[in-house]
Amino acid sequence: MQNKFPEKSDYPESFDILDNPYKNIDLYMRLCVSSSSAYFETDPFTKYLFLKRFYLVENYIKNTDGRRFKKILDVGSGIGFFIPILASLGDRVTALDYADDVLDYARFMVAKRDIKNVDFVRGDIQSLPFADKTFDLIVCMSVLEHFKNPVKPLSELKRVMSSGGLLVTGYPTETPLFHFLHNELSRISPKRRRLNRIFKDEKPSEKFAAPHLSNEQTITEAIRHTGFKTEYSKFISLLPLFLKLYKINFLRNES
Predict the structure, then answer these.
(1) Secondary element (H or E) of residue 101
(2) With b meaning 16 or more CB within 10 Å and e meaning fewer, what string describes 56-71?
(3) pLDDT at 202
(4) Which residues contact 24 (CB under 8 A, 6 or more apart)?
(5) Residue 41 Cα distances to 30, 157, 182, 191, 225, angstroms
(6) Closest CA relative to residue 38, chosen from 214, 161, 172, 221
(7) What are the pLDDT digits (tens) for 147-185?
(8) Distance between CA atoms of 93 and 189, rounded to whole angstroms?
(9) Mind listing the pLDDT tens digit for each residue in 205-242?
(10) Options 3.40.50.300, 3.40.50.150, 1.20.1250.20, 3.40.50.1820; which CATH number does 8-252 get?
(11) DSSP string covering 110-167
């Protein structure tokens, strides 16, 4: 039985760039920004946080919403870690990312797994190449925190969402605790130290480095401003009811 999440063997041989970053530094950094390292070359804390968010979204959609979607948009799809699950929940999935060479890895994985209902689009969340009211489910995980003003991308998501559609957003809380844990893991994890060293030496542009420019408070305000109705919110914590690190919202478009 196939794992619901992709494995390293689902990607082409060139995916070994995660172990050999100097084969193509630019591609390596794009893969890391697209969360490729969050599961395949990371510390246990980051891996836990990375997987937990997908399980939470899957469980909510299956057990609470329960319907089958006609058209699903996965924004910031990267190498397609969530695609196999989304493909099982709807008739058609569109995977969107700004880096086409990163999407190539998702394309390879989908072909190898023989997943037939996925399209790939290179695009920008601030100017989505889709008609109004196209999708009835949109998943936008670990994207909004990269925008100083999340209202613009959220407005675009609302534009392309059908009336009554479901938007799932996820983002780190950006609390002092979150940054402390991130910094400590960056200090003690050999692979994280290597990644930080490469980014420091190569000095990528701001967009390329994908800094976090918003936090839970600013994104929550942007959600309110754009008129989505919050159906359910859930924090992922390091311990139950304590140390909130990541927030997931299930939002309804009622317009």
Answers:
(1) helix 100-112
(2) bbbebbeeeeeeebeb
(3) 67
(4) 17
(5) 14, 31, 15, 7, 37
(6) 172
(7) 999 999 999 999 999 999 999 999 988 766 665 666 666
(8) 35
(9) 545 546 788 888 999 999 999 999 999 999 988 765 56
(10) 3.40.50.150
(11) HHHTT--SEEEEE-BTTB-SS-TT-EEEEEEES-GGG-S-THHHHHHHHHTEEEEEEE
What is the rounded average pLDDT for all residues in the chain? 86
Dist CA 38 CA 6 (whole Å):
13
Question: For the chain, which residues make up each domain, given as ranges?
Answer: 8-252
What type of residue is 28?
Y
Q: Which two tokens stand for residue 229?
A: 């109705």
Tell me the HSE value of 82 on the side-chain side, using a 13 A CA sphere. 32
Looking at per-residue pLDDT, the higher value among 2 and 153 belongs to: 153
Residue 66, classed as helix, strand or coil, is coil
Question: Count of CB atoms within 10 A of residue 183's CB?
Answer: 12
Question: For residue 63, what are its two tokens?
Answer: 């057990």
Diameter of the chain measured on Cα atoms: 49
Which has the minimum average pLDDT: 32-36, 74-78, 121-125? 32-36
Three state DSSP letters for 20-63: CHHHCHHHHHHHHHCCCHHHHCCCHHHHHHHHHHHHHHHHHHHH
